[in-house]
Amino acid sequence: MAEAGDKQWYVLHTYSGYENKVKENLESRASSMGMEDYIFRAVVPEEEETETKNGKQKTEMKKTFPGYVLVEMVMSDESWFVVRNTPGVTGFVGSHGSGSKPAPLLPEEIDHILDDLGISVKAGNDFEVGENVTIVNGPFANMTGKVTEIDEDHDKIKVDVDMFGRMTSAEVDFSDVQK
Length: 179
Hints:
The protein has 3 helices and 11 strands, in the order E-H-E-E-E-E-H-E-H-E-E-E-E-E. By secondary structure, the chain is of the alpha+beta class. The strands form 3 sheets. It has a 5-stranded antiparallel beta sheet, with no helix packed on it. A 4-stranded antiparallel beta sheet has the order 2-5-1-6, with helices on one face. Strands 3-4 form a two-stranded antiparallel sheet. Strand 3 and strand 4 (about 55-65) form a beta hairpin.
């Protein structure tokens, strides 16, 4: 049994089609409300799907669980309140209402889901300061840059990318970067 204060994964129910917006809202609220030590990662489970229409192949990302977002967090009254009141979040899965906190996913459940998504549970050790990486998600997607800082506690990585001829520092999740 996990002790209070451990970070665990929870499942959020969202309005369908708002999963990525909820992920962005959660991440910005975590930093703007000083909750980085409680709210770590938000993941929208997606998989690549290739369709052939009119003889043309089209690859797109399809939601594995439409209407759901995974969040890695330490459950406290404050973090529970912040996440629950994030725009687009309709509630936690596994909460029995009347103010009861939700049950986290079991480690083997989340390991299986993240593994299917190609996200390692603890990816931080894979990166080194100074190495070149490609950002695969978010506003800096498809940009290549150099790792300048690794924040293992929050599963974030700072990457310097060249934007319009100027070096810009981008902070992204481990899961949003590839070697």
